[in-house]
Amino acid sequence: MKLAIALMVDPMALASARAELPKGPITLVVPFAVGGATDVVSRLVAQKLGERIQRTVVVENVGGGGGAIGAAKVARAGPDGNTLLMGTIATHVINPLSMAQLPYNAQRDFTSVSLIAMVANVLLVHSSVKARNVQELIALMKAQPGQFSYGSSGVGTPPHLSGELFKSMTGVDMSHVPYKGGGPAMGDLVAGHIPVLFDVLSGAASHIRAGSVRALAVTTRERVVSFPDIPTVAESGVPGYETWTWNAIFGPAGLPRPMVDELSGALQAVTALPDVQAKLKELSATPVGSTPETLTTLVATETAKWRAVIQSIGGLKRD
């Protein structure tokens, strides 16, 4: 009897829900290069979201500008839900705090939909670097000032800030090598073209497990469950050090509230799926899935936190 009732009700409810969803295919803009942490999470979410709402969800990588170019594309899109952004702390917090000519307004030009996951950053070195821990790396850099460089996924990204904060708090001298995404940066670390890399842990996880790079420390306050043997930078002799990032879905400004609610509900359901939870944890991301209001509050809170970090290192020099 319950099954019969469900069969009678569900088609109507589904039709009503679909009426609030975007018409046609959805493009999920990833503002970083293929193969990086944000790209990996985005492709997982896009596949599951498409299955959930029975729409085609296509990932489009639009890298450059520390995420600003891709974010600007979504900001200029129409409020029909056919173009969404996998935003990060870089696109919605760091860029607004550090770029004078940002081609969008992070608060005015977007609609919050759902926070997907929180992610740690990680300090990595090439196997040729003669340092097995953070203190040995600091000693090595101080013994050879100016001889070390570190890569990141781009100027103003969380990994870049992680590196700058590390320099500020330890007094080491190392130059920054920005890339257009974590994928290309990781490729150069594995190949030995750069000795040090600050990366998002979700993008670096498979390389750490494969042993192609050496992880010295994670940047969060506490150790990460998926890599319990990797210490934090703070416990490795740099007390008070802490950085992080996150992935969240935004739409252009003006998305109709019913559409926002449908998309947010679908994303929360997707994030709660056991296989998605397992995959995100495998990538060393902490699954969240949130309401639009929670995401909006997070952006405001993170802006206050990162403003203090940027000020503590004397601001950012955009290359």
Automatic annotation (TrEMBL):
<protein>
    <submittedName>
        <fullName>Tripartite tricarboxylate transporter substrate binding protein</fullName>
    </submittedName>
</protein>
<dbReference type="Pfam" id="PF03401">
    <property type="entry name" value="TctC"/>
</dbReference>
<dbReference type="InterPro" id="IPR005064">
    <property type="entry name" value="BUG"/>
</dbReference>
<comment type="similarity">
    <text>Belongs to the UPF0065 (bug) family.</text>
</comment>
<dbReference type="InterPro" id="IPR042100">
    <property type="entry name" value="Bug_dom1"/>
</dbReference>
